[in-house]
Design a protein that fits this description.
4 copies of one chain form a homotetramer.
Chain A (H helix, E strand, L loop, with lengths): L4 H19 L14 H6 L2 H26 L6 H16 L1 H10 L5 H27 L11 H11 L2 H14 L1 H19 L5
Helix pairs in contact in A: 1-3, 1-4, 3-5, 3-9, 4-6, 5-6, 6-8, 6-9, 8-9
Chain lengths: ~200, ~200, ~200, ~200
């Protein structure tokens, strides 16, 4: 087989990212049995739309960065594959807290829902960092032809990930809604500019 | 890695299109707890079948055209990838308004449901146009070997997209059901004939 | 791009087949709110298991035959891609009648559910036949190096499809449960032996 | 077509594994209509998280081992493809017993739920063993260049599969919760170390 270990890993990874993103829409619901005015019900769903867009763009950009990182690698090992599986597990989990935000934002229990949402992003950022640090420390899995400057640039792009999502968790203590808007802003403005998919 | 930036983008895109189309069926439901005569209940589900077929064919043809467009490109940049992500976000969103039409067509709140459905198609057509115009203007991402006549042909195929879906939105003001039938007709008769997948 | 028109079509097709098969499990449900004895409830779910297994194996084998057919082709045209889209539309639809059988078999409304199930397979078989006849008639899309004996062998494998599923529909008039068991038998015994995936 | 029979099989297999893993999250639910304190409700969901993580990691590692096995093969035959389909059928079924464990663990009916969960893993392990034994016995489908030591190593990795999952089923007789924790431990500690994805 002409297949390399990295492409083998990428196939499963690609599938999980694309499916997790597309499943998000299933979490947006209207309780049709108890809806009297559909028009205003659709407008009052704005927390659902916000949560959907935020999670979708975040998954999309993380996926693209994932590919950029993997392109610097020539091999994978058992530990790395397991870290990758943990990363996918967190990405696949995202539809669940997304639904919590969609259903509870702007309602009495919003704080617990946003805690769950922000905490998921923190865990994802931590695992993603560990995943990259494992591969890049001592150039463990990195190809010889990849310039050191490229590794340093990726390191720099990874640095703010954990602090910025920790901040969304902290902000949720004071204002759940501000926390979600910050998560959206990260996805819409910060992540694209910091994204590694530039060539 | 032998991978090019466009194939990287295409993998995620392929997944999202195929999943969004296949998830549509999950939105067709029968409230089994309150169904007394299944046979007639299945016949009364025709708005669901109509919405399902319309959305499925539209996604399928947009996907094929997407491939045709990408085949003319030799590279992608950050902005284009973000536009592509917005396009996928809209395609993935489609199951939600499809369910609204499936549940509300021919019922009291049908107008709001059809507004949401038609508006989603308008937004999709706008983003799809911006996506293509960004790539093709000044041949920004287009390969040198691609003849100008091919770009012009694709431009021509894109031109009617936004106006025709804007028309379905306008018609929904007067007759929601006529709007959905027009969207179906576009998917079944107009899109295939205008499709870019001819060789 | 090194991509051929047939691989372009296959990517979307692969995705839809795999997703449709995997979504089937979502249709198996236990109404946890009203279940008192889970053990016996799980045993009484046998129509769900039967419907799940039948639909899953049928999709899997149709998918493998699809690949075998496409391998004989060197090009695709607009009409063929549209026929392929109609085939995928029917395959994606299958989870819906599968759920109907899962919920209604061995209950009062079973006949309507099994009519819907059998009718879906008939439509699928008809479209699949038209899809192949379109490609193979006059060797329209067939590669020059493919021996005529191969085309004849595939033709022969396609011949019983429509009659055999029409028979399941007919049998549903007299015994819905016998109809489902016949559909299962086709998937478990007939389809694998007639399958085109032998080399 | 440059495609080999094994890649043809792998595409469908990749899709089903990735989708089955990602669908798992849809089975974790909170009955939002009857939840008064979301925070404590989320903490009480720990059986759901346990079931989700266990099933996800198991699917991920089985998938990677699947690839490693297929890499030793140069061809597939009809029987093998059918065995592969049965394996996928079992993997796709996993979200159902996962939901049962998620909903019933630590509740009155937990034993039946855990029986279903453990039994599914036993069936999966049996089919997976048959699948590999069929391919490797007499090197039926194995490539000539693959050293016998590699086959023996894979055989050795397969040996404990059925007994260890049979043990989880046995333990469920005495303690359902211990059975689930053992299944988790297998996924988190045993499977990664026994995994075939080491190079």
């Amino acid at each position: 087989m002409e297949e390399t270990p990295t492409t083998r890993m990428e196939t499963f990874t690609d599938g999980v990212f694309a499916i997790a993103a597309t499943l998000l829409i299933l979490e947006i619901g209207i309780d049709t049995a108890h809806t009297r005015d559909l028009g205003s019900a659709l407008l009052h769903l704005w927390p659902s739309y916000l949560a959907y867009v935020t999670s979708f763009i975040t998954i999309g950009i993380i996926w693209m960065n994932h590919h950029t990182c993997v392109e610097t690698m020539v091999r994978v090992d058992r530990t790395f594959l397991f870290l990758n599986l943990l990363l996918l597990l967190t990405v696949s989990f995202l539809p669940f807290p997304t639904r919590l935000v969609a259903e509870y934002l702007h309602r009495p229990d919003e704080q617990a829902a946003v805690y769950a949402y922000a905490a998921t992003f923190v865990v994802m950022a931590v695992i993603y960092n560990v995943w990259w640090r494992y591969a890049s420390t001592g150039r463990r899995l990195i190809g010889q032809t990849v310039p050191e400057s490229r590794i340093i640039a990726i390191n720099r792009a990874f640095n703010p990930g954990v602090p910025i999502y920790a901040l969304t968790l902290l902000i949720a203590v004071f204002s759940p809604i501000a926390s979600v808007f910050l998560t959206f802003a990260i996805a819409a403005f910060y992540l694209p500019s910091a994204a590694l998919f530039e060539r």
